[in-house]
Amino acid sequence: TSVAFGILLLALSLKKNRVYYAARDGMAITLYALLAEKSDSEVHELLNQVVEDDGQRCTPLIVAARHGHDKVVKMLLSKFEPDIEQEGTVKFDGYVIEGASALWCAAGAGHLNVVKTLVKSGANVNHPTKTNSTPLRAACFDGRLDIVKYLTDHLADIHIANKYNNTCLMIAAYKGHLDVVSFLLEKGANPDEKAHCGATALHFASECGHVAIVKELLEYLVTRPEVSQEERIEALELLGASYANDKDNYCLELAYQYLHRTMEMRYSDPNNIIIKKLAKPVPAYENWVECQTLEELEAIQLNHNALHMESLSIRERILGTHNPEVPHPVIFRGAVFADNARFDRCIDLWLHALHLRQLNKVSVVKDLLRFAQVSLGRYFVFSQMIHVGVDLTFSQVEDVLAASVLELERNKRKNSKSKRSKNGICTAVS
Question: What pairing do the DSSP bridges indicate for beta strands 88-92 and 95-100?
């Protein structure tokens, strides 16, 4: 009896697997033949039990949707009655997604026809996964604007965030999908929403270097009624200044266009001229004083160095010396000077970046290595100067050594605190 029962279970398993693999491989006719003569209860069991396959757990409908087999999906939904909202576990881009519906899988895999078939058959367009990711979010991750539009046209909620409060707009910005970002903004997505980590869509786009999306978000933000004219000006000034000293997105023409536009905005109302609140000139920026009028700005349009210093000054004024993003463009501009054998200017800028980091109590090991290290045949600034016969000044070496001593003292204090903490734990345990 036990042998017969085992054979029966094996036969049922083989039937179930044959149905599953026919759905997975897009074999609509074969799948229909396997199901057509079965009783309703058998069909229900075959279509609603999950099958484990390569780390995934799917029903025939889910796996067919995942692979884009629209004919299979249509046949199952029109001829039989699978649970259209049943959930499975699938893999996408190295992530294991638990609680994924057939619609989520089709949207995430970019199968528009399957998405349409499922929605027309009554699939819940906002059915979330275990992490509260919706089909719309899956489409935003993949950058499928066509699917995003279709889902929103059928009442998909653009405001539903996942369990980390990461929105559809955030994931589209993070992945660099400009067209999706623009569409979501048009539909009323909130660019000021913050994930649990504190980041907005603008932060995610900036972190990944998606300049076009940063521009799109800033242009949208500055049109908001709650944003003051001065805030609009500073946001656009910051964007322009960033173009002037960015390794991956350097464009001096765009930088000037934004700076010129913001200067015009400052003087757009003769009764309320918005004057810059200038900080003390920075020696590393050649004691540059920012332009205060259109005439002053237009006078430096063709002076690249002046625009570079203007932009560095703008960034430091708006972001402040305690912002961790301020040193990066300073280091980049210094590296450009070093490549052109302008070692004096390189050192001025790198020392300023070094002091900014130490002001914020950030480790400066990498900054110190830029001055003295020789790595893989590449000479860093002090080594390069010695190599080509340029003399170092005492003050330059003294500044770097002073920064090194401060770094050592801070590390010593950290280690001391760590030892005291460990001793306290040992005492408590004993």
Answer: antiparallel
